[in-house]
Amino acid sequence: MLTLHSHPAGGGLYSLSPFCTKTAYLLEMSGRPWQREDFSDLAATPHHKLPVLREGDQLIPDSEGIRRFLESKGAEFDAGLSAQQKAQARQIIRMVDESLILRLLCARWFEPAGWQALRQTIFADAPTDVVERFRAGVLAGLHFTGLTRFDKAERLLRLDQDLTALTATLGDQPFLFGDAPTAADCSLAPMVEALSRFPADPETAEHAAKHSALLAYSDRVTQHFALALPVAA
Question: Lower CB count within 10 Å: N or C terminus of the chain?
């Protein structure tokens, strides 16, 4: 059986990492049996981050790497899409996985209220020096991207622009490309959910929540896959 090594649940989220939730959705779509195992030893993972999928002794890192692995085993995540729609799906996934993720990291690790929530809950039992060292690395990465060099009003404006564009892309469809979810939905829905919920900075979450059509869409995706939260959560 496949085992998904995941970050834990929190704040009602299946996983605090939208990439772990994305991977869980992909696994559900693949039709292959799998199980979840929350994992904290990042040093034991190929890229020192999660998600990681395990099949026997093989470790497959990264949500997109896991997608390719599942596709190599026969999974089809974009069934029925035209070549143009598949290109649009790839653009959405890149926007979510490489742009919106920066806004989520900023909302959790940079904004004071978000960091306070993260520190007092997720990292409550972690040694201060270890947590602060890790945070310093995250903040250095965010500074390098340029996002944290803008003031908060500019950061929130850019978030609004992205979510407005994604709302227009969704339109009045149940899912991004029609009546059934595809790979792009597996990326977008967990990210929208994470941006609008604890432990994200409350002001960021409020801005995300203003995009009610996207929140309703995220709820539909969650209900479609109906993944059970871990009992311990």
Answer: N
Average confidence (pLDDT) per 10 residues, the chain, 233 residues: 94 94 98 93 88 96 98 97 98 97 97 93 86 95 97 97 98 97 98 96 97 98 90 50
Supply 165's token pair.
């564009």
Neighbours of 167 (CB within 10 A): 15
C-alpha span between 182 and 176 (Å, rounded): 8
Q: What is the sign, positive or negative, of the torsion defined by CA atoms of 128, 130, 136, 138?
A: negative
Which residues on neighbouring strands pair with residue 35, listed in sequence order?
3
Q: What's the CA gap between 18 and 31, in Å, rounded?
A: 20
Cis amide prior to 181 (ω within 30 degrees): no
Q: Domain 83-225 - what CATH class?
A: mainly alpha
